[in-house]
Amino acid sequence: MWSMHFLEYGVIRKKGEHRIALVYPNVYKAGNSNLGFLFAYNFINEQEGFQCERFFTDFPKSIESNSILADFDIIAFSCSFEMDYFTVYEIAQKFPDKMKILGGRSAYNPFPLKGVIDYIFVGDAEQSLEEFLNQYRDGELSDIEGVFTGCEDRVKAGFSQLEYHPVHQPIQWGEYTQAFYRSFLLEVSRGCSRQCSFCMVSHCIGRKRERPLDHIQGILEEAETCTKFETVSLIGPDSHSNLLEIIDICHPYRISLPSLRIEQISEEILRSADLRTVTIAPESSERLRISLGKRITDEEILKKVRLCSEHAHWIKLYFMVGLPGETSRDLQDIVDLTRQVSRIMRTKVTISPFVPKPHTPCADHEYSTKTVEKALSYLKNRIRFSGPPARSGFIQWAISTGNEQVTPYLRTRRYSAWRNLDLSLMEKKWKRVEV
Ligand code: SF4
Fold it and tell me: How far is the CA of 56 from the centre of ligand 1 (A)?
């Protein structure tokens, strides 16, 4: 591992009385490009008396000082994906006596980790994490809004107005890969004002809030003194209404727009951002897409793709299968749209099982591994795509909507063990989280 040339700019090396190990329960490539993880890394290190160092599954010793987990006072997990719970569980079992905390997008249902993690930060953690660290330093921990310990009847998810942004982002310049190549992640907005019924962003993270342009400019100027990058990745599921101005602020850096909304694709944006790849999420057929709240027709998508073909090299399409109300006609429509798009430009397709998420109008939909398997095999015979298998969708569903009855299953990733779980009999405790 270390034989590869490893070179990072933007690392924080700090000594503090209280040492926190920040674990991303997956590989460096994914975690070191995760904004929530970088948020925790910066935020904790900025608090007086605290020192925070990074761990990944392919870096079992801390990057900052080669320390082991046992050397730290607290193990903090930053976790965005349900399938990473296995690693969280495994590490937590190894350190029964150490304090363990967790935050991230998957924590809107904290119940599967009840009893495994001592303090779970639900929702935006800007306020709750600061309060927690202050209390910890003072040696007395009491109830904090937005923090779940398993004793509360209800927990209110944290909500932030985006005052804070991490600027010390360790960026890889060696041979080690990172999901966003030599990129500074700039969060331009959070939340979404749309209400697509399958999506957690608007239903959990809340309505869209945008960072003001002068704030964005300030973040970038500060980042230039803290780390080194050649691309700025603009992060925000609903993008920003002043996208062109932001692109202008970010020049001369290369721009990446991983969450550009279809409606925002324009000649001007494509020209000024100089994108190699454009990502579009048609989700499903036109009929299902519109009925689930994403009001874009196939014709509009094709129009945007034609425009992209004049400026970008690749288009990436994201679909889901197993959505409520899906028929074979919808699957055929996915095939037709994909074929039409790939006739226009080079296309990569990802198709994932639809996983019902807590707090969304689709939360009560029952996942069927059989239905998803059938849909994926129908598509596999007609188009080329990548994506996780149907069985992993079942496990994600159990973790995202289940309760503490799911916890013992986290010992194994084997589907044969999970398939016996009957979620229809399980109390939907995630409803005790107020979003
Ligand atoms: S799918 Fe996209 S547009 Fe719809 S609510 Fe989610 S983030 Fe917003």
Answer: 29
